[in-house]
Write a structure and sequence with these properties.
The chain is an alpha/beta fold. About 20% of the residues lie in helices and about 35% in strands. It has an 8-stranded mixed β-sheet with strand order 7-6-5-4-2-3-1-8. α3 links the parallel β4 and β5.
Length: about 160
Amino acid sequence: MLLLYPIIVNQMKAAVQFSDEECCGFLFGMEEEGNVRTISAIMSAKNMSSFNKRETFEISAEDYMDAENFADRNHLKLLGIYHSHVGCPASPSEYDRVAAQPFFSYVILSIVENTVAEMRSWTINDEFKFEEEPISIININQQIHGYRNHSNSAA
């Protein structure tokens, strides 16, 4: 399961929603027992694809090194990649599958008319096939120091 703070969702949306090319970046956080991952930071990356950037993305080795260094400096783990699909569903393409790495979560945001229409996460299994990974938005209106917000609004 992938746990996302609302601010992380908003940062990913802001990074991808107004581009007519696939945008991409890194997901950082911590992993708990049971493969529960909490994403607490993201870092955008430049799409270096030499193909049609509207349909593919590629991240440079330099950006990967920067991401690893960021994770080390901040005592986080590099847990995955986010990227957009412009005018397409938030499902992995064959190009995504071939480039995928084990262990990573892959959040895909579907962009339709400059709006995030859908967001889904995927992991790749031992047979190199994608499996959907549940996403949960962390409720920041939890009880804090005896105060409880009783609103029923969703995050």
